[in-house]
């Protein structure tokens, strides 16, 4: 469960860390602000699904993906392929995010045994998340080791 929290944090909270004015409210709540650096828009509901219970450590489950939902059961896909990364592993290694990367490799397994699931999920769903859009991500830096 901590990996799920880490992925969600990376996807929606950590990337808004430069904006300390982000309120702590539900994104699909009627009073949610329009500031898409703080709140996912449109919608704001982030879904996670469980697939492939035969992959990964025993007594654990794998995560298929996290994606924004329009709060009506629909979602957009492949919104901005200029932000699709060919290798999430290389990107996270570059920024020294080894803890997150180790968790992703242990619990976020695709059926090919490489990072193709991570790449696919970000290209399909992550590129549609407003909290991951430029210029929101531009001033954010990771600590390099």
TrEMBL record:
EC number: 4.6.1.19
A GO BP entry: RNA catabolic process
InterPro entries recorded: RNase_T2-like (IPR001568), RNase_T2-like_sf (IPR036430), RNase_T2_His_AS_1 (IPR018188), RNase_T2_His_AS_2 (IPR033130)
Family in the record: Belongs to the RNase T2 family.
Protein source organism: Sphaerosporella brunnea
Source domain of life: Eukaryota
Keywords: Endonuclease, Hydrolase, Nuclease, Signal
Molecular functions (GO terms): ribonuclease T2 activity; RNA binding
Full protein name: ribonuclease T2
Classification via Pfam families: Ribonuclease_T2
GO CC annotation: extracellular region
Gene3D superfamilies: Ribonuclease T2-like (3.90.730.10)
Keyword Oxidoreductase in record: no
Secretion signal span: 1-16
């Amino acid at each position: 469960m901590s990996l799920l929290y880490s992925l969600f944090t990376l996807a929606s909270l950590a990337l808004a860390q430069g904006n300390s004015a982000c309120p702590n409210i539900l994104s699909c709540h009627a009073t949610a602000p329009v500031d898409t650096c703080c709140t996912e828009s449109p919608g704001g509901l982030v879904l996670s699904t469980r697939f492939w219970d035969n992959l990964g450590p025993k007594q654990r489950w794998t995560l298929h993906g996290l994606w924004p939902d329009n709060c009506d059961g629909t979602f957009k896909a492949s919104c901005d392929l200029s932000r699709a990364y060919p290798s999430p592993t290389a990107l996270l290694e570059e920024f020294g995010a080894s803890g997150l990367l180790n968790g992703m490799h242990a619990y976020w397994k695709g059926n090919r045994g490489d990072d193709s699931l991570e790449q696919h999920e970000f290209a399909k769903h992550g590129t549609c998340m407003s909290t991951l859009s430029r210029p929101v991500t531009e001033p954010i830096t990771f600590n390099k080791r």
